[in-house]
Amino acid sequence: MNTVLVTGATGSLGRAVVITLCAKGLKVKAAARNLAKAAFPAGVEAVKFDYQDPGTFEAALRDVEGLFLLAPPLEPDAPAKLNPVIDKAKATGVKHIVFISAFGVDAVEQAPLRRIERHLMASDINYTILRPNFFMENFSTGFLAPMVKQGGIYLAAGDGKTSFISVTDIAEAVASAFQKGLFGKEYNLTGPEGLDHTTAAGILSKATGKTVTYHPLAEEAMLKGMRDNGLPESAVQYAGVLYGAVRAGYAAAVTEDAEIVTGRKPMTFDAFARQSAAAWA
Q: To which H or E segment does residue 6 belong?
């Protein structure tokens, strides 16, 4: 594998993938919609790429052998945006696509990410599908970070457990998929334990030295808060489905796939919280 194009390179997972691939000696092209605001490690080629502008696809994919494909978050129209990228990747000679799907979508054929999986499987391109559970980094750099800093986590997650996984472990799995040529494989990536949000809040309290409390919300209250914060209605509804799955217990399962792919045990939530304590100072 010579050159890998990383989509979503300015996000939490995309940045981790760029850093990990570079550390392993791979040549990286990092995709960004706004190059003026994009900052990447030395040696990384920044390229303009926008899912909503197919005219940017060909240049970004030029001389690329591997494609790391990541959908925009909470995007119900993801198939309309990503499937054309898969088609263009095939036309330009990409040899291997590693696609980040989501934990559990293989059980719901109409799910947007599952429809992308199916398109990729039928493309005749070598593929690896990784289905990670909720990111630990949602608490440190994502949408939950401001809540944690203020001492409260407000979600309609009920008492459902989630086997949170760190983006660093997902990035290691991505690198392993490219380096080992894990073609035609599907992996469900989780952390080593399932935690409810009350337990997660307790771990965060210990790491930060201040009390963090989980406040379970009714679904409609959570969705109203998202609307009030300017989230598009389609994304609000998507989030409702995700947390409905958490409440139903579908996010609780723990797999060994992360260790199988990377050869190392994934990070615990406790270790993540201790490493990330500065984020909540």
A: strand 3-6
